[in-house]
Amino acid sequence: MDNLEKKAPLSELMETTMAKIREMVDSNSIIGEPITTPDGVTVIPISRVTFGFGTGGSDYGKTVDKFGGGGGAGVRIDPVSFLIIKDGVTRVMPVALPAIGAVDRILDMVPEVMDRVDGYIAKKKEEKGIF
Hints:
Layout: H1 2-24, H2 27-30, E1 35-36, E2 42-59, E3 67-86, E4 89-94, H3 102-128
């Protein structure tokens, strides 16, 4: 029973730290609120969120009254890109430096390739009279 009482302040400290992190980091930190311009363009910011936390505690003696502890957390939000939506076409506009690796380049090209495929299919349907 005495052992459970000693863990209670540390558990409370960890719960408080995690609650504060949840307040700082939510889905709106990653995918921002859409912004619509008067000419019908929708811009959606995309960010990378990195966070970390640490919590620790100690008991200076055998009683709960002498507990000491601390906690800390950090959050870093980096803008990555914007989704630009105009006339049903979605484009990714990166904020950072261009992709360095082959996989990054392929991932950056996916929206453009999809737009081209959609255009090709639409053109073939139009040629055949299929709507």
